[in-house]
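ok so for the tutorial part 2 we go from a plain amino acid sequence to predicted structure tokens. step 1 is just haveing the sequence, like this:
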Amino acid sequence: MNWKEYFLSLMFLNIVQMALAFFIFMFQDKLPLNPQGFPGLNWDLAFMQVISFATNTNLQHYNGEVTLSYLSQMSAVQFLQFTSAASGICAAVAFVRAFVVGAKDFGNFYVDFVRSLTRVLFPFCLIASLILVWLGTPQTLSGYTAVKTVEGATQMILVGPVASLVSIMQIGTNGGGYYGANSAYPLENPTPATDVFQILLMLLMPTVMCFVFGEMLGKRKETRPILWGSYGLFALDLVIAFVPNPVFGPGMEVRFGGFFSAFWTVVTTAVTTGSVNASLYAFHPLVILAAFMGMLIQSTPGGKGIGLMYMVMYVVITVFIVGLMSGRTPEYLGMKITGRDVLLVMVTFLIHPIIILIPTVLAYATGAANAIGVSGNSLGFTQVLYEFTSAAANNGSDFLGASANTVFFNLSTGFVMFAGRFAPMGLLLALGGSMIGRKRHVEIGLKTDTVIFSLVLIGSILILVALTFFPFLALGPILAWFQGYTTGYG
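step 2 — the prediction. this is what the tokens look like for a chain of 490 residues:
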């Protein structure tokens, strides 16, 4: 396949999958595996949720344990979590193929898709699910169980196919949990051991993809700028998050402690997973600022697949800037960077602020934010900006939760998630298409496998993101910090 055939095949399969999931969500009350008798979802919520799971975002405007049947959890949610993760891996692998010497095409999407599922995601998730069950996460198709507490009261134990969903939600950098409280819920994340294990699962695939880049090129040293740049930015996010707070440290969460809660938040936004083990309201504004940075950059190291594509995009921008500064023709891997290449990467970069900032303004202009009780101060602005940043970055963590289950937020976030996923993917595949068969120089003028280039890459990314988003971050978490909101958002 060429890049157009590959991308259209990916889009076609994802749209068909969304249609199937939409049907299951709408008619779950008439389908089997619904022991709790939950009704079908409203059309706007079903529309938003199928896009959310199909785009690897997993933004949830519902509480799963009181909304979705077992069939919906397995055949819509988990199903789309597997296929969206596989689609991201496929897009990245096809994109890297375009840079391989002697490449003539992008491969076949359907072959890559099956291989991603059967060689990578299924085996890893099976092993992870068994470990999670061993550590105490439930996995059953039995109905909810009523038990007597030690005080004599009756309590409903909400169980289900939890471990299998947690495994793909973390390995696939999906983030959508079985319960509304996500991994802050005791059954989804029962112990500190499961907490650390889930953090490792989140980091697994994005880190692996950095090494896949060098292996596929046959130049392992080219892994260095991708890996060093990603984790250099990740380290900077950690520094921001752990700026000493004289009152409560990184936050007020007590279940796993302030350190592990803040560390999880930085990880889950750095790899665009979006799962949470504590309420975002429990953190002071600089932790939220670190979370913003991960979602705005999208390659720290980013989601599995798309994070790698974004980092290569930043590399192309950086070599272009370095070329302008040194008076040389910009090149990467021995290939000259053309004006069309720069146009493609800059349009890809600019899509992100457009789909974040326009709906944020509309949320206030239409009164949609006020309608769900969001204030107009720095904290309220942070919540709305975070909602659309999370949607555009296909992250899924958010402040609003089920309170955003309105027609405006369901439709607006649905369109933002769709554009944030497939527009950059298509443009970067087009960039790969222009690289195939391009003449290469034997002598490479600019070495991109050095520490110096990695530092320049990190600086370029920070400057680009700061120039684009700083005014809006200044109105949100930065202003909240200076106004003295250092004890959380609650």
